[in-house]
Amino acid sequence: MFVVSLLIVAVVWEFYKWVGPADGGKVFGWSLLPRSNDNAMPHVWDMLSRYGRPEVRGSDREIWRVVLAGAWFSFRLALVGFVLGSTLGIALAVLMARFKVAERGILPYLVVSQTVPLIALAPLVVSWGGKLEIFGYEWPRWLSASVLGAFLAFFPVSVGTLKGFTSPPGASLELMQSYAASWWQTLRRLRFPAAVPFMVPALKLAASSSVIGVVVAEISTGLKGGIGRLIIEYGRQATSDPAKVFTAVFGAALLGLTMAGFVALADLWMMRNRPKETAA
Amino acid sequence: MSAIEITSVSKVFNRGSANQVDALVGVDLSVASGEFVSLIGPSGCGKSTLLRLIANLLEPSEGSIVVNGKSPEQARLDQDYGMAFQQSGLFEWRTVAKNIELPLELKGWGKSERRQRALEMLDMVKLADFADHHPWQLSGGMQQRVAIARALAVQPSLLLMDEPFGALDEMTREHMQSELLNICRAQGTTVVFVTHSIPEAVYLSNRVVVMSPRPGRITRIVDVAIEGERSDATRDNTAFFAGITAVREALRGVEMNDHIRGIEDR
């Protein structure tokens, strides 16, 4: 299905390029229709063939190698950010579920934190690179990008997990109480497993958010090696080599898809013992 | 020795506020060891509250409760009782056997001991083939049997049940009642059983405690005089019908008293 939809998108793209106005069009006086010339909308086959040619003239590295290496670099950063963010999110949810006071004190800050524009935060966090030392280790620059990924990722996880922690019915809680189970035992054996169906969509969101966080951090700080840096570099060359930037954009999309794919696999594994929604 | 000793217990919710509820007032009840006692009465008569007080899921506002010669809290901590609710409350992420193992796990039993006990309990409720199924793969009656097996897994001397068969169809229900009696007879378990159904209460119980609402209190205790062991044949027994009539009249008395009092109040 996915391949089919990709083909359809490619066909639509080429169709618009064929019928659309080359220099953009106006609808009732508004410039609404995008330009369809080769600079703005390169042919699909140009984009594809661009992957096979070297990154810069005279280089022996084809661009697909560069894009793949960049995607792999960013993927590792996003993965670190995802793990950091999910761990933090779950930890916060536990704290908020344990102490009602903590929920009232922390939750508003979590919401506020997500209204701070990432672009504003990125230079600040990146400036930690080389300045901060933790347990004798110098704070590496790449970790700043991961932290920004984590910053976007933790929010859905903490809110979703907290919701899941409060989902078990009263009878189940009474049952645990009748077993004289401690709060932590109740968390581990009842609240946590009951929260899994709530955590799965939250983790999916967190996976794509961590990719966005990392790519935006790379773009806004110019961190070298990742897909974000490639996007700005290639974007600058768009007038002379319009297909080039699209190779990097697709690389970023591939990155997001891979991340989402891993979470989907984890979803299958975590939900393997649950009733299937499609079951009659 | 009596298993449960309840002396002038009251329970008030939201004391002092506008929506104060006198859930129970001046309740005295003594349950002998090995006895089967049902609590019956209209909604809001406090029968579930009384059960939760015995289970130490609630604290009485006044009066004292002694369970197995201890405070209810100590009895709960010692897992002296097992509990079953109307909803089976099985954990969907655990297999049937693992659900039964849950209370044993919390008691710190070893893995193989737990498994062995769970299989014994499943054998007892005739679900031995379903140990590794998940609860959602079972019918409602089977799920309730698992819940009872779970309640009995720690081999408690006391079983507290809150309308455990309320959600089952009539056929399954009668079958489950007979099975419950067999199990409790074999283990010598004391049972306090909350129900809405008069035939169920009479069939199962040595004594039926009739309660009335506003405020919740015990109005009468009906002794069920059915001789010998109860079986499906008991349901055609004249003593069974006599019991049903007695409980029904006691419940009617509840309504009538309310009616008369209503007149007097005017």
Explain what you see.
- The complex is a heterodimer of chains A (280) and B (266).
- Chain A is mainly alpha-helical and 280 residues long.
- Chain A is built from 10 helices and 4 strands; from the N terminus they run αββααααββααααα.
- Chain A has helices spanning 2-19, 44-52, 63-98, 100-113, 118-126, 141-165, 170-178, 183-221, 227-236, 242-270; strands spanning 25-27, 30-33, 133-134, 137-138.
- In chain A, strands 1-2 form a two-stranded antiparallel ribbon. A two-stranded antiparallel ribbon of chain A has the order 3-4.
- The longest helix of chain A is centred in the last third of the chain and has 39 residues, at 183-221.
- Chain A is elongated and about 75 Å long.
- Chain B contains 8 helices and 9 strands.
- In chain B, a hairpin with a 7-residue loop joins strand 1 and strand 2 (21-32).
- Chain B has 2 domains: 34-59 and 158-265, 3-Layer(aba) Sandwich (Rossmann fold); 85-155, no CATH class.
- Chain B has helices at residues 47-54, 72-77, 96-106, 111-124, 140-152, 170-187, 198-204, 238-265, and strands spanning 2-13, 21-32, 36-40, 62-67, 81-84, 158-162, 190-195, 207-212, 217-223.
- In chain B, helix 7 (198-204) crosses helix 8 (238-265).
- Chains A and B meet through helix 7 and helix 8 of A and helix 3 of B.
